[in-house]
Write a structure and sequence with these properties.
heterodimer; A: about 110 residues; mainly beta; about 50% strand; globular; B: about 110 residues; four-stranded antiparallel sheet; about 0% helix
Amino acid sequence: DAGVTQSPTHLIKTRGQQVTLRCSPKSGHDTVSWYQQALGQGPQFIFQYYEEEERQRGNFPDRFSGHQFPNYSSELNVNALLLGDSALYLCASSLGTGGAEAFFGQGTRLTVV
Amino acid sequence: AQSVSQHNHHVILSEAASLELGCNYSYGGTVNLFWYVQYPGQHLQLLLKYFSGDPLVKGIKGFEAEFIKSKFSFNLRKPSVQWSDTAEYFCAVNPKAAGNKLTFGGGTRVLVKP
C-alpha cells in the first residue's frame, strides 16, 4: 500500500520562474492538502482539494494555485517565484473533508535563488 | 484565526528521562487534536490523535497526550525516552468546522542524549 508520494524531492529555481510540484495520495484517499514548511517553522496550510475543486485556502497569494485530477493526484503551481518561497512543500492526503487523519509525503524541497 | 503555541523550541534530555511537551491552542469551538513527529530525514508521522471521548489518549511508541478543554491544552508525554525519540514534534489543531485544515505549532526539537 503506497503512502503519499511527492515529486520531485528537490528543486532549484530562479526568482521569477514558475514551478509545479506533484503529489499522489495514499491509496483510498480522495482529499489532498498542501502545506509550506519554512525552515525552523511548523507547516502552514496552503489549500485543499476535494472532488477536483479547491475547497479551502490558507493565507497565501494567488501566485499559489493547484489542481486535482480525476485519479485524486494533485499539483501545486507557484508563479513568479520569490526568494521567500524557498521551503519544504508538503502534501497530505486524507479521506473526505470531515477532519480525518492526514498522511504526509516526504515533501519537495524548493530553493529559489 | 486559530493559533497553536508550543512552549519549548528545543529540549535536551538523557535517555530514561521523562518528556513533556506543551501545546496550547486558541479556538473556541470543538477541535480535533494531533501530535505529529518528524524523525531526521523522514516524513511527518502521526503519533496520536484526539477526536472525542477519553481525554487521555495513547499513541505509538509509548507516547500519550491529555486534552484539557478548560486550558485549551493538549500536552504530550512519555515516561522514559530513548535515543530513538530524537526528532521534531508538532502539535496540530483541526477545528471540526474547518474540514481537514490543520493548524500547526512551531514545533519542538527534542534531542535525547545516549
